[in-house]
Amino acid sequence: MFNLKTVDIYIDGSSMGNPGDAGVGVIFSQAEVPVKNISRYIGRQTNNVAEYTALITALQEALTMKIRRVNIFSDSQLLCRQITGEYKVKNETIRDLFRQAQTLLCSFEDYSIEQIPREKNKGADKLARQAAKKRSKIDRIAAPGRETAPVGGKSEL
Questions:
Q1: Nearest one of 48, 116, 59, 107 to 82, comparing CA atoms
Q2: Whole-prediction pTM value?
Q3: Are strands 33-45 and 69-74 parallel, antiparallel or unpaired?
Q4: Residue ranges per domain, the chain?
Q5: Closest by alpha carbon to 112, among 84, 76, 86?
Q6: Which site in 38, 60, 86, 117 is 20 to 30 Å from 124, CA atoms measured?
Q7: What is the secondary structure of 27-85 as a DSSP string?
Q8: Is there a contact between 26 and 67 (Cβ–Cβ < 8 Å)?
Q9: E strand or H helix at 88, and its extent?
């Protein structure tokens, strides 16, 4: 059994178009061993919204799992630099997500966030892309007067 006081969390958001069908991918690991994966469809969003939604999803789940310290890894330079205060948050939609993420981060004893190359974030990227693509396969049903409508909107692996 793992001691889940501290975990590494790899996050990614993916949008098929900008905006387009979007998904998030999250991998919780400890000592480089995956503990939990999340792959979730989040509707039609921009890529930046998907990146922030991946962070918020990860932080919410970490709190549910009673994790005290998180090391977050993302390939999004914008997200990482906004969270660390290096970049200002100018977009109003992103500003709301930024505030939500900051509130969640304050719930942990300690956290770090680091930008990593895409090559080191392939697992989270794959989960995010799968979630965005899944909409056409299992997260949609026909609705009267509309071509399709989302159902459920999430899946956890």
A1: 48
A2: 0.85
A3: unpaired
A4: 6-156
A5: 84
A6: 86
A7: EEEETTEEEEEEEEEEEEE-HHHHHHHHHHHHHHHHHHTT--EEEEEES-HHHHHHHTT
A8: no
A9: none
pLDDT digits (tens, 9 = 90+) for 33-58: 999 999 999 999 999 999 999 999 99
Angle (CA) 8 72 124, round 5°: 80
**Count of Cβ atoms closer than 10 Å to residue 13 Cβ:** 31
CATH T-level topology, domain 6-156: Nucleotidyltransferase; domain 5 (3.30.420)
Give the residues across from 75 on adjacent strands.
none
| Strand 69-74 to 6-17 pairing | parallel
CB-based contact 45:19 (threshold 8 Å):
yes
Any bridge partners for residue 33, and if so which?
Answer: 30
Q: Which two tokens stand for residue 19?
A: 């905006």
CA distance 130 to 117: 20
Beta-carbon neighbour count of residue 85 at 10 Å?
8
pLDDT digits (tens, 9 = 90+) for 49-91: 999 999 999 999 999 999 999 999 999 999 999 999 999 999 9
Give the span between the Cα atoms of 52 and 83, in whole angstroms: 10
